[in-house]
Amino acid sequence: NSDGTALEYVKQFGARTSPLPQAGFIKGIDGRLYATFKAGGTGNVGSVVRMEADGTNLTYIHHLRDADGENPAGNLMQATDGYLYGTTQSGGAMDGGTIFRIKPDGTEFTVIYNFSALSGRTPRGGVMQATNCRLYGITPVGGFYGSGTIFSVNTDGSGYAILFHLNDQA
After folding, report:
1. Taking a C-beta distance cutoff of 8 angstroms, is the pair 83, 77 a contact?
2. Residue 77's closest CA among 37, 119, 127, 33?
3. Which of 4, 56, 75, 103 has a Cα-to-Cα distance from 49 of 20 to 30 A?
4. What 8-state DSSP symbol labels residue 133?
């Protein structure tokens, strides 16, 4: 309850499954809960999961592989196009992490952007969608000064733009 009473566990993860949830679940427009796990899955580099709001039917809808990116840590976000968007901290084509999208039913997983040293690396906070429908996020590493970037990108991966190169001297 919102007043803190009637705490109820809907799903408990043990050491045997070791999925390492790093971020919270989000509620999809279908009422189900979605999240990423940093480890676990068939390649032990992370996965995208879905479950009912009552904690039943935990389903792995996608097991990440190196090309998909590895070790997601930020929250997923469901955009206006219905896709779930997320980031990974490593892996992908340039081993700097990725931005990916997937349909809530687990189909159409696509890496829409691969991070590099100049574009920023190791995103940890996921992305958010603004009213202009672009995705925005931050990386803690890379960019011109090596201290990370603030970026935006279209939902199809085009139009990647660095809005600001972070500088630890500023």
Report:
1. no
2. 127
3. 4
4. S
The angle subtended at Cα 63 by Cα 60 and Cα 68, nearest 5°, is: 140
DSSP E strands in 70-160: the ranges are 77-78, 84-88, 98-102, 110-114, 128-129, 135-139, 149-153
Q: How far is CA 163 from CA 121, 123, 138, in A?
A: 15, 15, 10
C-alpha–C-alpha distance, residues 138 and 7, integer Å: 34
Token couple for 145: 């000064």
pLDDT of residue 6: 74
**CA dist., res. 68 & res. 60, Å (int):** 15
pLDDT tens-digit readout, 9-34: 555 555 445 566 778 899 999 999 99
DSSP 28-76: -TTS-EEEEESS-STTSS-EEEEE-TTS---EEEEE--GGG-B---SPP
pLDDT digits (tens, 9 = 90+) for 147-159: 999 999 999 999 9
Residue 71's identity, in one-letter code, is: N
- Phi and psi torsions of 66, nearest 5°: -50, -45
pLDDT at 9 (0 to 100): 59
Task: Name the pLDDT band for 91 (thresholds 50, 70, 90).
Answer: very high
